[in-house]
Amino acid sequence: MVVHSAELVLAGLDPEQRAAVTAPAGPVCILAGAGTGKTRAVTSRIAHRALTGEISPRHVLAVTFTARAAAEMRARLTVLGVSGVQARTFHAAALRQVRYFAPRLLEGRAMPELLDSKVRVVTLAAAKVGLRADRAAARDLAGEIEWAKSSLVEPGEYVVAAAKALRETPYEPAKVAEVFAAYERLKRSNGVIDFEDMLRAAVWGIEEHRDVAEQVRGQYRHFVVDEYQDVNPLQQRLLDAWLGGRDDLTVVGDASQTIYSFTGATSSYLVDFPRRHRGATVVRLVRDYRSTPQVVGLANAVISQARGAEARLRLELHGQRPPGPEPELRIFTDEPAEANAVAARCRTLVDGGTPAKEIAVLFRTNAQSEAYEKALTEAGVPYVVQGAERFFERVEVRQAMVALRAATRSIPGETPLPTAVVEALAAVGWAPDAPPPGGAARERWEALAALVQLAEEYAATPEVLPIGEAAAVERPVTLSDFNEELARRAAQQHVPTVDGVTLASLHSAKGLEWDAVFLVGLSEGTLPTTYARTPEQVEEERRLLYVGITRARQWLWLSYASARSPGGRARRPSRFLPQLDRSGGGERAGGGVPKRTAARRPATQIVSCRICGATLLAGPDRKLGRCPTCPSDIDQDLYERLRDWRARVAGAQKVPAYVVFTDATLTALAERRPGRTEELIAIAGIGPRKLGLYGEAVLALVDGAAVDDIAPEKSFEISS
């Protein structure tokens, strides 16, 4: 249905969304928390202004960061009855303008060819200054060049700028600057430009050519920028050029989702928006329509501890969905046990009717995916890898497998398997010391380190060979055995799938959502990563966890392993997890129990206040399901009937009343009024035994039964 009515556009909006939509012309900052309907708010604002005649759609430029988001914005505007709005990414908008004005700006010459990737030219530039950069090193150098150009840093300024920004450079900063300068020279000599050049060309065309500026500003008079916390200095420079001193600008962002600062993105423009634009209207969207109150409560608890500039704009979300299951916090003895338990639960969810495509397993680094690819494969659960190749399809892993096969001819057969693997990987430049600087190089190192870990685990399970009928002998596994095992795993994981469980890094999960989310590997050194050394970097790691939590609609699992591999060095849980009792054990692979417990204990659950969403730590508060300061919605009549019934049961059983149920449990029952067995057992203090003894009677009382209708002798007979 197409709307075509300004009043209908406002229908169904919450008060905050309505305030954003109807804000007066001029600078407007919409602080939109995860799941709060920011796309609906911003498209409704455009549509409402257009349908009331305040603006013309063809004069609107809405800028997003992904083509998918731009397409969604255009589709929603069409449904709202508005067409003609230009919704594009920064790069697409700049490219369109540069192409249009190229004959005028370049004196009749065609626009230079646009590089799809910098890596090839960067590799040549590195060679020009005496560096032999492999693909990973070239990717890291390209990343540094992109950061510099996005930050408006020239080659001669790079060394100082990198030092100020505390950049972790792949080579000495002076050498990176040399590569940067050589890269720029090579581009010019080859007549090509990169994406940053294109943005700069759009800026130059407007700033230095009055006729171009007049035409662009005459066309675009009203601007909307989505994900404003991810804008970099070059993009802001282009936005300022488009505006030309005008102030009809609406920005949408969430400082708590700032996770791309390593690329040059900065939330400072969002944080400082009211200062840069005097008289700006600021609207906060805090009603979360995506996640259950339980998930929202955990997200609030995690981000409430944030510090730094972004924390000034922290939003406390309020869940709008019906209550759901509490997030689960699981602890495992090692990473294989964690992966196997995740795969088993995915299998259960899929068998129970949850579509595989509505499940995601999220981790900090892509190198962590291998364990989950293996576990899901063995559990028969289809999966897809988001934003990266499958583990055995990665270039560095394929090269390593070739080197491992070749090493069987040169490494003695009696060499212990882990040692043999380390020696073989030396042929592809891997060494078991600290990983190299640079994100791509480090990711390559971690992928090969995962192969070494696989070798250690595989070596711990020697093959048992039968000898006669009464004896057997253990044969240590060899490099040839390990190569066969890798080939088997690769063959299993190469089965194509259409829909499956999503495996993704936290960065690549941004902007997506699923019914069920597993956040795994939440230990110190992984999240936050050991490479987060400054307070600002640590806070960005906290925001990564926050982004991961807010991807879940209904069901959320958080887990970590006490050790990386069986018997390995102990690790601590992530500092970002709520400080709850973590004694509850997780499952071990094969149905065993954690080392420190003789019997399986229930998993620790994170309990959130059902009213305000805060994480509850105290026992009585967890039982009530609300903060002591939050208003009680107790059914007083039900509470009195429960007290009378408890007194009769206690008298019949000749036990104190609190043995049946404590006052806190009665209060929780009268407040929460459970209507089903599942809701009843969710109340702390009601376990399987008390459910069997009193569950039927309690549910009857909640349903309105009189105390006289329930015989206490039945409970007495059961307990005796």
Automatic annotation (TrEMBL):
<feature type="domain" description="UvrD-like helicase C-terminal">
    <location>
        <begin position="293"/>
        <end position="554"/>
    </location>
</feature>
<feature type="domain" description="UvrD-like helicase ATP-binding">
    <location>
        <begin position="11"/>
        <end position="292"/>
    </location>
</feature>
<dbReference type="Pfam" id="PF13361">
    <property type="entry name" value="UvrD_C"/>
</dbReference>
<dbReference type="InterPro" id="IPR014016">
    <property type="entry name" value="UvrD-like_ATP-bd"/>
</dbReference>
<protein>
    <recommendedName>
        <fullName>DNA 3'-5' helicase</fullName>
        <ecNumber>5.6.2.4</ecNumber>
    </recommendedName>
</protein>
<keyword id="KW-0547">Nucleotide-binding</keyword>
<keyword id="KW-0347">Helicase</keyword>
<dbReference type="GO" id="GO:0003678">
    <property type="term" value="F:DNA helicase activity"/>
</dbReference>
<dbReference type="InterPro" id="IPR000212">
    <property type="entry name" value="DNA_helicase_UvrD/REP"/>
</dbReference>
<feature type="region of interest" description="Disordered">
    <location>
        <begin position="565"/>
        <end position="597"/>
    </location>
</feature>
<keyword id="KW-0067">ATP-binding</keyword>
<dbReference type="InterPro" id="IPR027417">
    <property type="entry name" value="P-loop_NTPase"/>
</dbReference>
<dbReference type="Pfam" id="PF00580">
    <property type="entry name" value="UvrD-helicase"/>
</dbReference>
<keyword id="KW-0378">Hydrolase</keyword>
<keyword id="KW-0413">Isomerase</keyword>
<dbReference type="InterPro" id="IPR044876">
    <property type="entry name" value="HRDC_dom_sf"/>
</dbReference>
<dbReference type="InterPro" id="IPR010997">
    <property type="entry name" value="HRDC-like_sf"/>
</dbReference>
<feature type="binding site">
    <location>
        <begin position="32"/>
        <end position="39"/>
    </location>
    <ligand>
        <name>ATP</name>
    </ligand>
</feature>
<dbReference type="GO" id="GO:0016787">
    <property type="term" value="F:hydrolase activity"/>
</dbReference>
<dbReference type="InterPro" id="IPR014017">
    <property type="entry name" value="DNA_helicase_UvrD-like_C"/>
</dbReference>
<dbReference type="InterPro" id="IPR002121">
    <property type="entry name" value="HRDC_dom"/>
</dbReference>
<dbReference type="Pfam" id="PF00570">
    <property type="entry name" value="HRDC"/>
</dbReference>
<comment type="similarity">
    <text>Belongs to the helicase family. UvrD subfamily.</text>
</comment>
<feature type="domain" description="HRDC">
    <location>
        <begin position="632"/>
        <end position="712"/>
    </location>
</feature>
<dbReference type="InterPro" id="IPR013986">
    <property type="entry name" value="DExx_box_DNA_helicase_dom_sf"/>
</dbReference>
